[in-house]
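> call design_seq(struct)
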């Protein structure tokens, strides 16, 4: 994976963040961030990345952090990573994590797009996104944002 696809300081930032995580006694986070850096340098393996990402799933769910692990698994993890990404993404959507437009457009999810499971997860996310948007509008949430701010349901 070429570093040219990422911001100019991505690798350096990975190394700094990994050390910061270790200094905060979060060695597992440092290991995962190092695995990202190794993949950016084209010296990591999909298997090592998957193992590091799986460690994340041993802790209580932080839906945003888990989603970033899904992105990495899909992008870097090869076939095993894709399986883990699908399983975790289904869990996240089931828990109400439904940034539908991100799921729809994020290029790191491209390896999953042709999979039946991903298409089903995307449909579930779309449905839950619509339900949330409708509930927000029905509860008067639009008034907090200003008239018409919420837009029409997707």
């Amino acid at each position: 994976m070429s570093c040219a696809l990422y911001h100019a300081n991505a690798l350096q930032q990975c190394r700094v963040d990994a050390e910061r995580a270790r200094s905060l006694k979060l060695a597992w986070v440092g290991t995962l961030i190092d695995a990202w850096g190794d993949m950016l340098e084209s010296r990591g393996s999909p298997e090592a990345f998957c193992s590091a990402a799986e460690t994340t799933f041993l802790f209580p769910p932080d839906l945003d952090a888990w989603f970033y692990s899904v992105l990495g698994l899909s992008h870097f993890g090869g076939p095993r990573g894709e399986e883990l990404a699908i399983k975790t993404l289904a869990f996240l959507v089931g828990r109400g994590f439904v940034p539908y437009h991100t799921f729809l457009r994020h290029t790191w999810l491209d390896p999953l797009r042709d999979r039946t499971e991903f298409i089903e997860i995307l449909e579930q996310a779309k449905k839950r996104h619509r339900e949330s948007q409708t509930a927000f509008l029905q509860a008067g949430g639009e008034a907090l944002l200003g008239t018409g701010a919420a837009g029409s349901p997707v």
